[in-house]
Amino acid sequence: PKTGILLLNLGGPEKQEDVHGFLLRLFSDKDLIPLPAQKQLAAWIAKRRTPKIKEQYQKIGGGSPIKMWTEKQGQGMVELLDQLSPETAPHKFYVGFRYATPLTEDAIEQMERYTLVLEVWRNAQFPQWSWSMDYLLHLKKAGFLSRLDRGDPYPQEVAATVQRVMEALDFSHSYRLVWQSKVGPLPWLGPQTEDAIKGLAKNNKKNLLLVPIAFTSDHIETLHELDIEYAQELAHEVCMHTSPYRVHI
Questions:
Q1: In tens digits, what is the pLDDT along the chain, a chain of 249 residues?
Q2: For domain 3-119, is the CATH number 3.30.750.24?
Q3: Which CATH class is domain 145-238?
Q4: Which of 42, 98, 99, 186 is least surrounded by Cβ atoms within 10 Å, i.e. has the fewest?
Q5: Can you give the residue ranges of every domain in the chain?
Q6: CATH topology identical between 3-119 and 145-238
Q7: Measured in whole angstroms, how far is the alpha carbon of residue 159 from the centre of its chain?
């Protein structure tokens, strides 16, 4: 291949036995979740959370589909690029995950071995820019408020995406930007999705469309957190069983 393209993402465990290793890498990353005694506490948290996270993955098929979707996107991308840019063809994509296999460092090694590198393109698999792009990938959802003090434009990038989508829809519906997947005790961006859904239900809103605006493929945060925790469990909690209130994904 003449041009190598590295697709970067957080990744996810493909099988049940991969869950602990995924969590250990995730909580060991001080750029993602800074912890005191990072190594020791990360090991304790990963061990403690593994059974619960395994159950969640079991409910969505046993593992994360993010590698499958990334590969499908990569294949479609290089086929299109071969047509649009024959001068840099052939193109080959490589998948690099931060917390699951294939790890980014292994993907880079593959590129060095198999690609006659005219040019290497980096493609982070999330549509809004964040300081985390410099660290390959972090969360594509809410983030620590302390990071915003360092000038991270992520909230503005997400808000701009929402604005353009609603402009294209001619603002046909009322809308609100909310955040998900808060981890740990530190303050995160808000409002959180769960609180927003409960508030809308109290205001007698009957139908709600949740749009995961910052994701390019399904994974546990869409398939479990949105589809199950919000669209099923939370919808039931706010009286979906006695009213026409629904959450649509």
A1: 688 888 988 899 999 999 999 999 999 988 777 788 999 999 999 999 999 999 999 999 999 999 999 999 999 999 999 999 999 899 999 999 999 999 999 998 888 887 665 555 555 555 555 544 444 323 334 444 455 555 667 788 888 988 998 999 999 988 889 888 766 666 677 788 888 888 888 888 777 888 888 877 888 888 888 888 888 888 878 764 333 334 444
A2: no
A3: alpha beta
A4: 186
A5: 3-119, 145-238
A6: yes
A7: 17
